[in-house]
Design a protein that fits this description.
Length: about 300
């Protein structure tokens, strides 16, 4: 399939490469042209690089696509997404498909879905999980919005999901981004539990080898899985994480999950506690110095490419 792709950040660049590997033709535009040049340089030795083209503006991107146009946005949620969507709206027509793959709040996606639907444009909000590692393992994709659009772009989603990811349609409007929001809330609690557990192990009177423990925990235990695999990686080069400060950023979905839960009178004590811990880590050096905080920060770096603060 042929599609337009806007946004070549950490996730977007890797997704474009995976689409090209899957045999799709991708037309890219990015606000900063140097990222387009970096992408070209990265893929120049591959045969499928010929399926990449770039344009200088969004209008040219839309004009380069056959109907029904498919335009995928992978830009920061909020104002940046709104600005791009305003421009895209001017250049798409009835029956075209617009996809927001960023971390939008589900209520924003709901409004956008209804707005584009009134104009005959098919809108999808797709939560993209898996971090930068998913470019290798396959992206889990959580879709909501126009069902016919989802069915039409399945070949694209199949390519992004290979070999071990997957995709599902959850309903109209913001359903996909709602599912992704809660996924990230669960992720906050899971990472916090790993951080705290290894914090206790690190203070053990037995001089335990944390890397060996993490490796064993991946071997069929009840806590094995993606995040424990990443724990092995995070501890690999610096088992004591002595080079890091435990300053943990938050992308917003954890907070949104807590807010939604409170509206629905659903207890989310673990998710809320993990969110508070992250917030405190950015202002309280006592929290930031803990092994738990350092490990959570290191995990975010391993699977998501998020920056970590190094000790000076």
């Amino acid at each position: 399939m042929r599609l337009g792709f806007i946004g070549l950040g950490r996730m977007g660049t890797r997704m474009v490469i995976k689409l090209l590997e899957g045999g799709h033709e991708v037309v890219v535009w990015n606000r900063s042209p140097e990222k387009i040049e970096n992408l070209k340089l990265k893929i120049k030795n591959y045969d499928w690089a010929k399926n990449l083209s770039d344009v200088s503006d969004i209008k040219s991107l839309a004009n380069s696509l056959a109907k029904p146009r498919i335009i995928w946005l992978m830009v920061p949620a909020g104002e940046a997404t709104e600005k791009i969507l305003d421009q895209v709206e001017d250049d798409v027509k009835e029956g075209d498909i617009v996809i927001d793959g960023g971390n939008a709040h589900y209520t924003d996606t709901q409004k956008r879905y209804e707005h584009f639907k009134d104009k005959g444009i098919r809108f999808l909000g797709i939560g993209v999980s898996g971090g930068i590692i998913a470019s290798r393992d396959g992206y889990p994709l959580m879709a909501g919005g126009d069902r016919s659009a989802y069915d039409y772009v399945k070949p694209i989603l199949d390519s992004l999901a290979k070999p071990d990811g997957g995709h599902e349609y959850f309903g109209k409007g913001g359903a996909g981004h709602f599912v992704k929001m809660v996924h990230n809330g669960i992720e906050y609690g899971y990472m916090q539990s790993i951080g705290e557990g290894f914090g206790v192990l690190e203070k053990s009177p037995y001089n335990l080898d944390l890397v060996r423990i993490a490796k064993l925990y991946t071997k069929g235990t009840l806590v094995s899985g993606f995040m424990m695999d990443r724990t092995v990686e995070a501890l690999g080069e610096d088992p004591k994480l002595e080079k890091l400060e435990g300053v943990i950023e938050a992308s917003g979905e954890g907070e949104w999950t807590v807010e939604e839960a409170k509206k629905q009178n659903v207890p989310v004590e673990i998710i809320e506690a993990s969110l508070k811990f992250r917030n405190r880590s950015r202002s309280d050096k006592t929290i930031a110095s803990t092994f738990a905080a350092r490990l959570v920060a290191a995990l975010r770096n391993v699977f998501g490419g998020h920056e970590v603060k190094k000790k000076s």
